[in-house]
Amino acid sequence: MRLGHARAHIKKPDRKDVLVVAFDEGSTVAGVFTKNQFCAAPVLVCREHLKKHASVRALVVNTGCANAGTGAQGLADARATCEAAAKLIGCAPREVLPFSTGVILEHLPMDRLLAGLPACMAGLTADGWGDAAEAIMTTDTLPKAASRQIDIHGHTVTITGIAKGAGMIEPNMATMLGFIATDAVVGEDVLADMVKEAADLSFNAITVDGDTSTNDSFVLIATAQAGNPPINGEGTAEYAKLQEAVNAVAIDLAQAIVRDGEGATKFITVKVEGGQTREECMRIGKSIANSPLVKTAFFASDPNLGRILAAIGKARVKDLDTSKIRVYLDAVLVAEHGGRAESYREELGAAVMKQPEITIRVVLNRGIESGTVWTCDFSYDYVKINADYRS
Amino acid sequence: MRLGHARAHIKKPDRKDVLVVAFDEGSTVAGVFTKNQFCAAPVLVCREHLKKHASVRALVVNTGCANAGTGAQGLADARATCEAAAKLIGCAPREVLPFSTGVILEHLPMDRLLAGLPACMAGLTADGWGDAAEAIMTTDTLPKAASRQIDIHGHTVTITGIAKGAGMIEPNMATMLGFIATDAVVGEDVLADMVKEAADLSFNAITVDGDTSTNDSFVLIATAQAGNPPINGEGTAEYAKLQEAVNAVAIDLAQAIVRDGEGATKFITVKVEGGQTREECMRIGKSIANSPLVKTAFFASDPNLGRILAAIGKARVKDLDTSKIRVYLDAVLVAEHGGRAESYREELGAAVMKQPEITIRVVLNRGIESGTVWTCDFSYDYVKINADYRS
């Protein structure tokens, strides 16, 4: 697996803005994509190319233009990108997956994009992950990469990923691109199951502003170079080991996105426990994590904790008994019996709120399921970044 | 009907913060309330007191403290408020409705609140609407009042209302209090139906930040003093006339809330037409109106209109054919065939975006239903107001 980038002047002069990731023959891929119905042309093309246990030879990623809201021309542009890359690589166009991120409703500058591909190919190198992470950034302030190694029957298996995204991270991923590759040898269907579980525990569990993009994509590639005996379906120890490592890389990347959330000054973990289903825990967790009032209170280090209760109450979980709910801020019990805990003192809450990393823990006391959501606070800079984005 | 206020120092010294609205015997009331499950104690008490065609003699409203997240003590405080007012008026406690707005998770200062009631009673006057509108404000910068007169069989019927609210206005009302009174003589059940329709077309059609409060309440009172022949169920011309006037007052108040939205600099109307159901039109309208990315783009007067498409796409309306959708900014066609309209020029969009009042019109081309949502932009000041609210 090798990576190469180019400075193709897609939107801004002289920045890394096109990335090619090339894979050896025998590589397979699975992915999950935005549920936004106005999804971008490259997402439509990815979905076409991604059949079961699909063969993949290259990813082509551009930043600066999302190729979304671009109609038939956008679709033709995404296909032409695949064809041009396939020609350079010597593979079928369906073995190339296109990804775009940036401004919506503008057409790709195809001449510049295609002119950049030979430079990407010429620069392909196995240790290009750092440059690759930079080449896919938009309003990100930091590149995002993570890696793990595990041992499968004496063979070292590596799992490495990069991601971009700093806003529009919910629900189910938004202006979020994530690419994780492993050299593991895996059987059919394994990747499709693994990418779904990893997405649910990572990119689908983060939120910056509750918006959902047209372009979100997360793909998992297996290059089959590690020499391990093939890993097959769920239930085996090897499967569990690989899934766990893929999850860990995905969670690292997802948390890096939240830490780099537009204007973020605090990293907030929302743990909801004691639910009847994971789904209801995640619903309450996201209701808290997406509340602008909760997020501005955290920015201000103001323990205005009633806003958390209001966010729980508006999640519309059926038959919720609010008198049974306990809310903690780190280890501080804030609310119980439908109101402020007797032991709670404002100074205790204020001390927790001042920290850069805070955990809100909600115990529903109605079941054994749980869910965790990661988010950030909501600052002046969020507005500034999004008001100024195109200028 | 008479109104009186007091400066009871609930939260801040020397501001109007308690309001009593007193009604003659024979007055009836109906209301709609927040769906937040952590709803405030006064909301629980209102629901108890509001039976079908309920008799009402007084509303007691305080600002400065929401009496929400206050458990059993909060409930006792709300009941004690009704009892104290009932004693002063000479009615049953269930004929008094309590309302609170302000900070959550703090107990009402009952001594100060109760001490304020005699001043409210002493100052009761028929022309106290202006002071009343001021006495219920929190982060509102302007008092909100509206009135209409209609003729019913030669009798002049007046409909007058006040409201407060500037944030947390969605879905289904939030830190929003609305009170509309009419002197019309109406039959049983009429008020319950009317208040629901008026709420759907007004307070439930506005959004400032997508948050939902614990205290939202909207009540409609009929004092039966106008001398008109009783207005009964739907279908009569008089019913339609009164409903239309109540709707108009409610929409005036709701729009005033949006215009005074926390940090708002622009008033945005989102009209969604050509839908299969009103519900799907409202869902898309609210998805646009609640998108922080759309709202910050409007604040910046930046025609980054792809964000509108993204907001339509994430509303998850089933079987939506994005290629059939047309999007207009005032009269400017922005998008069609899944992308930017050929006739669209950035200057045209930019010119519309600079205006203080803007209409986003989305034509779905799949049915005959429509829905309208009103919202405002999202500015630095929204963050400032909500980060500093308690200090």
Instruction: Provide a count of the helices of chain A.
Output: 11
Please tally the β strands of chain A and state the result. 17
Give the ordered list of helices and strands of chain A: EEEHEEHEHHEEEHEEHEHHHEEEHEEH
CATH fold-level label of the largest domain in chain A = L-amino peptidase D-ALA esterase/amidase
Q: Walk across the major sheet of chain A and give the strand order.
A: 10-17-12-16-13-14-15
Name of the level-1 CATH class of the largest domain in chain A: Alpha Beta
* End-to-end Cα distance of chain A: 37 Å
Structural class of chain A: alpha+beta
Oligomer: homodimer
User: What proportion of the residues of chain A is helical, as a percent range?
Assistant: 25-40%
Most residues in contact: chain pair: A-B, 66 and 66 residues
Explain this structure.
- The structure is a homodimer of 391-residue chains.
- The first copy, chain A, is α+β, with helices and mostly antiparallel strands and 391 residues long.
- In chain A, α5 packs parallel to α6.
- In chain A, β5 (58-65), α2 and β6 form a beta-alpha-beta unit.
- Chain A has helices at residues 41-49, 71-89, 110-122, 129-135, 190-201, 237-259, 278-290, 292-299, 306-313, 346-353, 380-387, and strands spanning 2-6, 18-22, 28-33, 54-55, 58-65, 96-103, 144-152, 155-164, 177-182, 206-207, 217-222, 267-275, 326-329, 332-336, 339-340, 357-363, 369-376.
- In chain A, the strands form three sheets. Chain A has a seven-stranded mixed β-sheet with strand order 10-17-12-16-13-14-15, with helices on both faces. A six-stranded mixed β-sheet of chain A has the order 4-3-11-9-8-7, with helices on both faces.
- In chain A, 58% of the residues are buried.
- At the A-B interface, α2, α8, α9, β15 and α11 of A face α2, α8, α9, β15 and α11 of B.
